[in-house]
Amino acid sequence: MIKLGVNTVLFKEFSFAEACEAIARAGYDGVEISAIRGMCEHLDTDNWKSQAADIKAVLANTGMRILSSEVATHDAERLKNAFEAGVELGIPVFNIGPGGKADVEGDLEKMGEEIGKLAELAESFGVTLCCKAHVGAAIWNTETTLKLMSLIKSPAFGVDMDPSHIYRAGENPEEALPAVISRVKHIHIRDCKGRQQNPGPPPMQACGRGDINLAGYFKAMVDAKYDGPVCLEVIGPSQTMAEACTIAAESYGYMNAILKGLGAR
Question: To the nearest whole number, what is the mean pLDDT of the chain?
Fold first, then answer.
């Protein structure tokens, strides 16, 4: 069954416990614990051992599980620490960005080599490292994602297929997903209005508020028998608890209804 979660960056002004409680109340299966330095470190990769007991207690109290973690770095030492935390806390998937710049000669190959080595490190810990296409980066659309897939052989590597970036690359995500689904091991989800560089203000990233054919995207997932995590990732200015809860709950209702209609939940 597809598991729905929320990246705790949406609740960056609040504790991990507060975030988990809110996400659980909205109906989600689990969380993506944010470890993004300088933005939201609900998981501090340098000090995770001191956090481990508290994190486990929060999960036990809320009935949540950690579906993934966004670390957003290519720093091997930070990722090694994150993978160690993953073994202890049961985090199966770690997400990073692609790095590099779009259409700069050699950047895609350089990033492929770099991410490939990090995937081999993840493999040694028994976890998965995922990377998504990102507007403006070396890997930014389906074509460059396929190239990255061809460069990395480690079974611990996966694609994090974020429809908002593919949509803003000028493609239709529901049509693009089948091309890369063989390596998709995580999905970041959000909506957006228009195909501009940024995804817009947080409320407009709530699933169902934008222009992306998310119903078609979920159908493509279900048709391909994808059964991994789908985690709402909303970025931008800090939200109040009420604002964050509204975005999370509205998105859950939208996604859950689509999946139930497809007989996948």
Answer: 97
